[in-house]
Every structure is written in structure tokens, then in C-alpha cells.
Amino acid sequence: MRPAAESNEFRRDLVSVLPKLRRFAMTLTRNAADADDLVQEVCERAITRNHLWNGEGRLESWIYAMTRNLWIDEIRKRKVRTGGGTVDAAEQDELSVEASGEKAVYANQLHKMILSMPEGLASVFVLVNVEGHSYREAADILKIPIGTVMSRLSTARMRLAAMITETTERRA
Amino acid sequence: MQNTKGLALEVRLSAYLDGEVSETERKELEQLVARDDEARMLLEMLKAGNAFGNKAFEEFLHDPVPLSLVRRIKQGPGVNPKAERVVNAAPRQTKVRLWPRALAASITLLLIGSSTGYIIGRTSNDGTPSVNVAAARTWLDDIADYHRIYSRQTAEHLVEVPASSGAKIESWLASSVGVSFSLPDLSTRGLTFEGARLLVAGGKPVAQLMYKNEDGDVFAICFLKSKPGTSDGNMAESIRDDLAMISWQKGGASYVVVGPSSDANLQQVADTVSTAI
């Protein structure tokens, strides 16, 4: 068992990565409700297993790998239970936005559009491009080959570039 | 370093952008981009995708993380994952910003200027400028920025008027911001009053009362006069990176309590302030 002070420090660190953790969860689940449930479960597991965190490297990497594993488990359970999987962002009526008005609708569409990229693209993009993980780190977190990281990353970038034109046309 | 030879050009250029190719490949790709219009256009598209995606995903960080979850983590013996869903713990508030449109427009202009020109065989050297449009900021954005700066100041520069001038602070700030108030005693919450500042946020004068806890963490109460006709509202919680903010409307004024996001008792502090101020 870890000393209380060390445990408190871990909890504090965990709180500090919550916004990033929620964003990463969104890239996996591609809808807000599932992401929030996933974040809850990850936090519970991280706290109960914080003695396994060796303090080396980035805490996010350890937490993200746990998040990915829990999400894969959840998908498997759902497939067994219902024969279905997740609901893609593109198929949902609304994401997490509760504001109103034209601008809010636009923000909603933008979130939906980004999260509706084919499975796996957003996660790789966030890990490497947004948060600066190396290809190796991203591959370890997502448990995919580095070659897959590379191809998903370039595909994500090209898709995002195409969205620039799409969003401009929608707003015109 | 990755060996990308034999892979699709966009994959190779993507790895080049990330510095994940060897020195030899880097030089090879740079030479290719220098002489090949299509390669150059691909590279520009990848860069544009980067910029667009970075901005878009950064926006996700502005979604509030409920303090109920923070408290569970901070205080636990453990969290109960299903007892309190994040989605229900706090109303999600989306800050609507103008940047997506501005970004899309500027990057599209850039792409048109730098890439399409090659396709149609014309040279465009007019350096299409990017369009910078300020995001729609609220007074809470300003308060968060102020707090990040002032909370890192030494004790000497933490406040404008020290706590020893308590009565003067009340009259000074009340007349400056147009909101009558009493200095809240937060000693029961472990916070010591350090003094006050007058700020400008959202284009209006704002009173800022600064407190510290035993660990030296800085907490602030900020308030300003609301627009006429603004009705009282419930407290709203949000986390902005390392800061937690609880804001509310009451009696014709807007209030916010700011503290470290890792503090588990901010809600109790806000409750006390709401009653005492």
C-alpha cells in the first residue's frame, strides 16, 4: 500500500489530467455519454491500482492505455449483449452541446464531424499531433503496430484538411 | 526513426512532419517537395489538417469536467463510477467561439493561395494573409487568465491593496464596481484573506478578493455588476486546465470563485461566499 501522501499526490495528478483524459475518451467512444462513463471507470481503476504506477514517463500514457483497454472490453460486452457496438457521432442527433443559436449549432456540427472520422483516426491524431506522443508511445497505448499509427495519422490529417473546405461551404 | 520507403507519399510526408523519418529520408523528401508540385500540395494539405485538428481538439479541453468527479478522486477512499454520471453532474456549457469559421477561412485561403495555384498553372506570390479573428471571450476567460498570472506572484505582489486595509477595500471596490459587499471570512474553510485587486474583465471593472490556504494555494473571489434584467441563477462549475471555477448570479451581480482544480472543497467555499458576501 502506498503512503497516504503519495496516494494524495497521485489523486492530484489524476485530477490535473482529467480534461485530457475526457478528450481522449471522446476519441475512442465518439459520443459524450460513453466517454463520461469511461472516464469514471478509468479513474476508479487508476486509484485502486495506483500502486502499479511507477512514476516514470507520462501519467497520461498509463491512464490512456488503461482507458483504451477498458473501452475495448466494453465494446466486446456490448457485442455479446446486443450484437451491436457503439453509436457513431455522425449517427447521433446531438453531442454534448447545450447552447443554442446558429453558432452553437455550428460548434456542434464541428464536434460531430471531427468525431465521425473512421474509428481509430481521432485517437492517433490526438496522441501524436495534439499531445506530442511519439509513434512508439501511441502504438503502445493503442496496442497497434507503428505502421498503423503512421497510416491512420496521415489519413486523419487528410480528412481534417478536407473538413476545412466542407465547413467553409456549410457556413457559406 | 521509421523506414517509410515504399509507403504512400502522404504517409511518408506525414512521418516527415513528425520528425519520425531518418536523416536520409528527410533529405530525400525535402528534395522531392522542392521539385514536385503534387508532393508540395500534399504536404500543405497535411499541415492544414494538422492546424485545423489541433484547434478543434483543443476546444474539447474547454468542456467542463464536473467537480463532483474531482471531489471523488481527491477525497475518495475510492470512486463509485455509476453513482454519479459525469453527464449529469454539471450542466455542460459550450463556449461558442468564432475560431472554427476564421480558421477554416484562413486555411482555405492559404490552401487556395499555395496549392491550387500550382494546379491551374499560375504563380501566386501575393502571400495570402491569414485572417485572425478573436474568439468570443467571456469575463470568466479573463478572470482565469488573471488568476494564472497573479496566483504565481510572490506575497509582495499578490494583491494591490493588502488585507490590513479591510474597510478601505470594501468601500473602494464597492464604489469601483458598483456592487455592495462584505469581505467574506473564509477561515472556517482554511482560507486567509490576503487582499484585493481591481481588474477589468469583459470590459467591466471587476473586484478580486485573494485568499490563500495553508499550502499556499491561491483562491480568488471575483464579482462585477450584471447587466440590467439579469436574474439570479444556479451555480455553474467548470474546470479550465489547472483551475476550477464556480460562478453564479445573485442580486444584480455576477460572482465566481476560482481555485486549483485539484481542490476538493471549492464548492463549500463557493457556498460560504454566496451566503457571506
TrEMBL record, chain A:
Span of domain RNA polymerase sigma factor 70 region 4 type: 108-160
Signal peptide: none
RNA polymerase sigma-70 region domain segment(s): 17-79
Keyword vocabulary terms for this entry: Sigma factor, Transcription, Transcription regulation
One Pfam family named in its UniProt record: Sigma70_r2
Alphabetized InterPro entries for the sequence: RNA_pol_sigma-70-like, RNA_pol_sigma-70_dom, RNA_pol_sigma70_r2, RNA_pol_sigma70_r4_t2, RNA_pol_sigma_r2, RNA_pol_sigma_r3/r4-like, WH-like_DNA-bd_sf
Name used for this protein in its record: RNA polymerase sigma factor
Source organism phylogeny: Bacteria, Pseudomonadati, Pseudomonadota, Alphaproteobacteria, Hyphomicrobiales
